[in-house]
Amino acid sequence: MGVVRNEHERVVEASVEAVGALLDRLSAEDDPIFPTPAWEPMTFDRPLGVGATGGHGPIRYEVTAYEPGRRVRFAFTPPGPPDEGFHELTVERLDEGRCLVRHVLEARWSGIDRLLWPTAVRPAHDSMMEELFDNIERAVAGGCARPVRWSPWLRLLHRLWWSRPRTVEVPPEARLLRASVEGPGYQDAYRMDMLPGLPRDPQAWTGVLRDAFPVIAREGGELLMDVDTAGLTARASILVDERHVTLCTAVRADTWRSRLYWGAVRPVHPFMARIMLRRAHRGLALAAPSAGERAARRGRSSVSAPSHLVSG
Hints:
With 312 residues, this protein is an alpha+beta fold. The chain is built from 8 helices and 13 strands. The longest helix is centred in the middle third of the chain and has 29 residues, at 113-141.
């Protein structure tokens, strides 16, 4: 078994109070510093505080110490990895307008995980921590002079690790799809989680099908596309809500030509639909504004809003 210690720190040109206030919003709906949506968000079963359990992605931990505006410590919990240990974020005052932000990880790794830490986990962890520091600078100073850049190796890891769509039933909310094809011979639906910072406008998701098909209807969070081809009556629906984005398809083959075509395409359709949704999901996540940029925009909006709206 092996114990590793990993440290990151950065001097931030802002007061300890301003940076500490950002720390207190970790895992909140408007979390301004955790690097989402490029990485899965930090989530807990309750607001940030001692006893809250959760984590990010497959890494599970519990809040074991919390000093608002100054320090939060997380202890790793089963099923792991790692086997045991902690990670901790602290903010320390340097002078009136400067502070030091530090992240420390200490963990015990065993078995194959001892190899995964240096080759895969540490590159991702190191980038996430530096991106978190970048977001702090963006939120308090409106920008980051030297944002972290991913290596080709990290980009490959990120692509491999990106979550995959789940197969679900066509949801009742897909009303446009259900009304568009009478007596479909085939229906399917694939779903992915809606991460903080991803667009909620279904129009932004038409790239799932490479913008190759016309949009024929829209209602609320659902957008319907005409994907007729080779005599098939076929529609695709993109349904977006606060929790998920769902790609649905309905197909009816009425002629011998369309049945022949669909017989050849149907075996590969589920595979291609999942690939396209996953690719669009990751592409939009990487193109989205960072948590720090979103926080800075919210701050500018609050400052520029009329005083009666801000106070109300």
